[in-house]
Design a protein that fits this description.
The protein has 229 residues and is of the alpha/beta class. 31% of the residues lie in helices and 22% in strands. α1 runs parallel beside α6 and α2 packs across α6. The chain starts with 17 loop residues before the first helix and ends in a 7-residue tail after the last helix.
Length: 229
């Protein structure tokens, strides 16, 4: 991928406001995605390595080369508490770039998870650790340490643009990216949407139909829907 800045580590990252990150952590991926206007989602092949995995933190990005996890060790030094490592690869790859040893290192630096558009391994150990990982696949295939990538450069991970310091939220529904400058606004919109959904949930639980709550009957009739007894 031409245009990527290679062989560089940017040590200064302007992270999203911690208060906004904390607020966003209360919401699910679907809520945040909808609240932002249906943007920011990574491709749906990005899945948690164990059910119920959840993370919300500020992105520290790393650009890898296929079959080479050298920069995963470099990125560890740049982590601060509350960060999420977002790893992109310069070309499609499913090798296992990450396992329990790197997770131990990441956690010691304060990282709250990993999002990687490639493979990971040691799933049993990562699950036991409770270290949230969202990946393209699981693969036992190892990697080498030979080619320089970069740390804290803008990357495209699973179709989503991620800048260092952006907010990354991931759960069983997928992964969504909130630009750092929009974090507070996204948190406000998510809270508003959640309150609105709570009201609708109560009405549906009481037996009201979505047909009536959303005033669908007239539109359905205009579209030609007929009821036959």
């Amino acid at each position: 991928m031409s245009g990527y800045e290679m062989g560089v580590v940017h040590r200064k990252v302007e992270r999203a406001d911690p208060a906004a990150v904390q607020r966003l952590s209360a919401f699910g991926v679907a809520t945040v995605h909808e609240a932002m206007g249906r943007v920011g989602l990574m491709k749906p092949y990005m899945r948690p390595i164990y059910p119920g995995a959840h993370l919300c933190g500020t992105a520290v990005t790393v650009l890898l080369h296929p079959g080479d996890n050298w920069m995963m060790h470099v990125v560890a030094e740049q982590l601060q508490p509350g960060d999420v490592v977002v790893a992109a690869v310069t070309a499609d790859c499913t090798d296992g770039f990450f396992g329990d040893l790197l997770a131990t290192s990441f956690r010691a630096r304060g990282a709250c998870g990993l999002v990687i558009d490639a493979g990971v391994r040691d799933v049993k150990d990562l699950t036991a650790m409770g270290f949230p990982v969202f990946s393209k696949t699981i693969s036992a295939k190892g990697t080498v340490k030979a080619t320089l990538g970069s740390v804290n450069v803008p990357v495209i991970c699973a179709g989503a643009i991620v800048n260092p310091g952006d907010v990354v939220i991931a759960d069983d529904d997928g992964v969504v990216v909130v630009p750092a400058a929009q974090a507070a606004k996204a948190a406000d919109a998510s809270a508003e949407r959640e309150a609105n959904e709570a009201e609708k949930r109560a009405r549906l639980a009481a037996g009201e139909l979505g047909l009536d709550m959303y005033k669908m009957r007239e539109a359905l009739a205009k579209a030609g829907l007929k009821y036959v007894d």
